[in-house]
Design brief:
Blueprint (H helix, E strand, L loop, with lengths): L1 E4 H4 L15 E4 L1 H7 L19 E8 L10 E2 L11 E11 L3 E9 L17 E2 L5 E8 L3 E10 L2 E8 L1
Antiparallel strand pairs: 1-2, 3-10, 4-9, 5-8, 5-10, 6-7, 6-9
Length: 165
Amino acid sequence: MVRGCARAVLGRRDPTCSVATCSEWTDLDSTFFLEMNTMPNYNAQNPPYSIFPDDVALAFNSEAPATGQASQQFALPSYAGFPENGRTIRWQVSFATAPSAVTIQLQTAMNDVDAQYAILTGAANMTTSLTAGDNLVASGVRANFVRAKVTSITGGSGVTVQILG
């Protein structure tokens, strides 16, 4: 149990707010924070998280995604003088318990619109089907956004997909 101002937690705190003057000063239990911090499967944050060099982004973190489920998206920052042949993205797939069959794609898009995410023509290492996990280096990627998508999975548990900046 935490004692505090509900408006302060939600970022609307009046600077003059105190225990004596605030009508919303109360006991804040864990239910308040859980309701406040629920995250949708497809991240609606605008702009989405960005992946910079040496960052590790967890598209799936020991989760149980169903067939057809996409991870949250990540922005790929643009750099001045970036070569025209595209960027390289390293990504890793692992499982707590290996599935009997699996296909996971690394999808990209120019605009953060669900219908635009796809595997780019000419890009290499954008799909894995290894049930023991995989380490891939996707090359020739020309996009502003990236996500992982489970296109099929049978059995297994604890799917983890890391996108390495």
